[in-house]
Amino acid sequence: MSTRRYTVVHFGPMNDRHVEEERSILASIGAELRTAPRPQTEEDVLSYAEDADAIIAVGGPFTRRVFQGLRRCKVLVRTGVGVDTVDVPSATAAGVAVVNVPDLWTREVATHALALLLALVRKLKALDTAVRENRWRSALEPPVHHLYGQTLGIVGLGRIGRAFARRAKGFEFRIIACDPYIPRSVFEEEGVEPVSFHDLLRQSDFVSIHTPLTPETRHMFNEATLRLMKPTAILVNTARGGVIDEKALVRALQEKWIAGAGLDVLEQEPPDPHNPLLKMENVLLSPHAAYYSDRAVAGLPRRCAEEVVRVLQGRMPLHLVNPEVGERLALRP
Hints:
The protein has 2 domains: 6-104 and 299-328, NAD(P)-binding Rossmann-like Domain (Rossmann fold, 3-Layer(aba) Sandwich), CATH 3.40.50.720; 106-285, Rossmann fold (3-Layer(aba) Sandwich), CATH 3.40.50. 35% of the residues lie in helices and 15% in strands. It is built from 14 helices and 12 strands. Helix 1 (16-27) packs parallel to helix 13 (300-312).
């Protein structure tokens, strides 16, 4: 065992078994694990982790000020895919490797997106309510759309977007997608037709969002772009709430620019109790839970702890968000 002692802080909820699994792996390099609540402010992060060598975090504001205040930190492991709560350039400037876990949740998120879409198309929420209220067939009201031959648009053809496309093929959609960062060859391999964002909105009967939240994608679904969609279209978002301008979406649903929405993510989480989306019958909601399955979550503690161990031992992690730091820290393969 290494004689050097490290301190690792894990922000966010964990059950006892997961804590012990992380602790056991980290102990192999002489690292002590501390657990802390999910941070809401910069002060929360610094009060628990100012002297930490590594951080594992569900979320939290990892800002320039935070990275300047972390005296020893070499690696920040995000337990999910998105790094929109992390100021990556500031992490790079501070010499902190930012690591994410982009592959554990792929199948779950893709499946959840398809589940939201199918539930909305088949009006399962209304049908379930009708049966429970002794209205056996009263909820069978048009329109109830078929899927065969309909156009499905995918915004973002990364890991999750591709997994979603593969699942959707069984329903015989025409599948189109937009993603300026994915080579044309990937579209061809997946049997997906590349189109521009605006053409996707105009042509699609269903749209599923699988793009990260960046300055470029924030509010890409706004009043102007939502108005391009078909009045019969359904919009599904399992990516990040900020990709959609929520006020514009509320108006689009109220004024029937589009027919419905399935949302696993919102701009404010949890939502304000007075958020109009909570009372809309043509909206299906879930609490940022698309990632979840027992099997996927069970693999997270080991993955996060092993990534910390790699970096603290001078090795390259599996998924480094800021590769410049790899050179700076002289991380070896």
